[in-house]
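Re-run with default settings, no changes from the original entry. Doing this only to confirm the output is reproducible before filing.
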Amino acid sequence: MLNGRHNSMKMSDRVVNELQLAIVSGQYPAGTRLPTESELGEQHGVSRTVVRDAFRTLASMGLVDVQQGRGTVVTVPSGGQVRQALELRMLRSELTMGDVTEARKIAESAFAREAAIRGTRSDWHAMERSLRKFEEAVAREAWSDAHQAHFRFHMGVLDALHQPALDILLQPLQEMVLLTSLSPDLGRVELWEVDSHRPILDALRASNSEAAAEAVRQHFEYIERPEYATFRTTLFREAHSLPTFGAVIGTYGDVERKLERVESLHHQ
C-alpha cells in the first residue's frame, strides 16, 4: 500500500514536471485550457487521480487555475506566489522593521549607483512627478496618497535600471518597500522625510553614482531617530499592529489588494 502511494506520488511529480515545462515553454499560453484529466492521463500513461494531484500542485505554484465549468486554465504570469512565499518566510522570522529598513538601504543605495548611469530623462521626469505628488499629499495630510506617491518614487530607482530581469526578481520585495515606507506618526509632517528625497533625484539627474548612493544612505538615516524607536523594534510580522498601518494601508488582509493597486500604478 505504501509502495503504491509512493509510486503514485512519483508519477504525479513526473506529470507536474512535464506540464510545467509545457507551460513555461509556451506550449500552453496564458488563458489556454489544459486537456482534461482523462486526456492527460492517457497521454502520460497515468490515472485521472494522478493528473488531479498534478493539477493541485500546479495550482499551488500559481501556474494554473482550476475553474468550475471551464476546466484547468493556465494563469497569467504573476509574482504573487513568490511574493507570498517570501512574505511567509519573513513573517516566520524574527526580523524587525529596523532590520528590513537596513536591508532596503543597502539594496537601494546599490541600485541608485547603477541607476545614475543607466537612467534616462524620462525616468527622472517620472520620479519628479512622484516626488511632487508626495510633497503635495503630505502638505494636505492625504496620507494614503502620500504613501502611494512615496512608494512610486522609490520604485522609480528600480525602473531607471532598465533591467526587465530585475523587475521580475525584485517584484516580491515590493511589500517590504510598502511596509517600511510608513511614517511612525501621521500627525507629524516632518517624519515623512520629504526633503531627504530631493538630493537622491538631483544626484541621479547629474549622473553622479556616488552622490546618488550616498543620498540614499543619508535618507535612510531616519530610522535611527528617537521617533522611530517603536517602529524600528517592531517585528515585521507585527507591522499590522502599528497605528499608521491601519490608517494608511488598512487591515493586514488588505495588503495583497493594496500591492496589486500600487503595482499597476507603478507600471503606468
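The domain at 2-74 is CATH 1.10.10.10 (Arc Repressor Mutant, subunit A). The CA atoms of residues 21 and 27 lie 9 Å apart.
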